[in-house]
Amino acid sequence: MKRLMFSFVLALIAVCAYSQIRIDWQQCYGSFGSDNANRIVQVEGGYWVAGTVGSQSGMVTIPLSNRSWVIGIDETGVLDNEFSLGPYARIDEDLFVGINQGSIYAIGHPQNELGKEQLGIKKLDANIGVVWETMVGCANEALANSVYGASTPDGGVIASTTIRWAGGDITNHYGLDDVWVVKIDSLGHLEWETNLGTENWEWPQCLINVSGGGYYVAMVGNPGYVGSIPVCQVPSTDASDVLFAKLNNAGQLLWFHCFGGSKLDIVDHVIELEDGFLLVCDTQSDDRDAEGAGYHLGYSETSQTPDTWLVRTDFDGNIVWSRCYGGSGSDFPIKAFQNEDGGFTVFGNTNSNDGDVQSAQNLQIPEDYHHHSRLWVFRTDVDGNLLWERVIGTKYSEIILNDVMMLSDTVYTILATAEMPEEGYEGDFSCTNWDNRLCGYESYWALQITDIFDYNSVEEGMVEATSVSIYPNPTRGLLSVTGKGLKQLYLYDLLGQKVATVPSYNGINAMVDTSGLAAGIYLARVYVGNGVCVKRVVVTK
Questions:
Q1: Neighbours of 22 (CB within 10 A)
Q2: The domain 465-539: what is its CATH number?
Q3: How many Cβ atoms are within 10 Å of 478's Cβ, its own excluded?
Q4: CB-based contacts of 393: which residues, under 8 Å, 6+ apart?
Q5: Which pTM does this prediction carry?
Q6: Cis bond leading into 474, ω under 30°?
Q7: What is the pLDDT of residues 315-334, one digit of tens each?
Q8: SS3 of 171, please?
């Protein structure tokens, strides 16, 4: 309870300091062509970074196979060595690189002797030497869409991809696109395979190991009535729902849940918690499971824009809370981590500069560049309340987040694909490799950040948040504040700027006029009696 109470204090202290995120180091890598980063994995003494590059030029000095380029960097971003993974990376495919028991695993879509793309897995040693490799699928047909995977505690791999037929290693196909999940043992042999699908379409999104054994499979789709997974309780529309399944160690379905609204809902990442899950999604919905989550309406050229959507559930799939984060632009999550205090740090992309994404204004982005994506990181408390947020990027160029490694509760290493700023350095971007023209216009960008706020600190004089009442909240005009011994109230925006100072004239009540404020989230610091409390205020229009 004490830590929960202080989370409100941390919210104010944190967002009042824009320098809360410190960039410890950053560097760029690549060729003179168009490069795309994919995955980063921590190894002894540094990291392996994988992706594809445009040509053998610039920093790329080795012959390439299918444009795949893997580099080793030390703990401060200095390039140590480089490799090519061969046909396990495609320009338009995700590349998964995981590590377990000192080995690295690469998963992709290599072609067989008939020129058909299959599901391929390589086990590599610490020097990217091949320990074993295997290929599974249907020899006469090609697999579709991206691949996902995770190393397993027994030294093997679980992987998933999309299938459109049966044959070869694929036992069943129910219609359109199905999710095919395989387990490869520690020697590279196919241990089991299963199909999660219906006569409609389903695509894989994420695989994780269950702490007590088994596997979680996160998917997106529009499931029908005939297949290996149950129909969702609410009939599907032309959009998609978040689909979540648990398999046992033999690949048998134990349970299945659907989440979503009437529009497009996609799961991007899943965290297993002590008492349930956190589904890290993006959504365009404001009804059904997303009702009341606070979706920020916005439009692109062709459709509504997505918000980042966090859904916390228990182990039975019951929703504990559901929250949307973002603005009127597109806000996509990539990865999230649970913090020591029970809250979450979420990493993604955004091109919003309003709503929850107030820190984008610090980059002073011109109107013509608002559609470009930047990195976005935000932290919540255990109940999903936004504590602080920070956009990381440049004034002019686009940056796409690819992967994040958590080193501690406050230290993270980020991998992104960055367009080099044409107008020189503005914002957070600074790479000596680009200064020295060792890489081109679009390259890998790795950086380590630290949240420098001390989350173990305790502010003296804090009082229970229940001692102060603020209503109506959300508000469109006058905000009433009541509390015994009320002295003064300060209202701050999420940039830490003080937007209102209101004294109490009778020691009990104060009124705040919010009609002149922009819609968004604000923090009220209320001095009452001999203490202070901090509350979150939402202003709407």
A1: 12
A2: 2.60.40.3080
A3: 11
A4: 363, 373, 374, 375, 399, 427, 428, 429
A5: 0.84
A6: yes
A7: 988 999 999 999 999 999 99
A8: coil
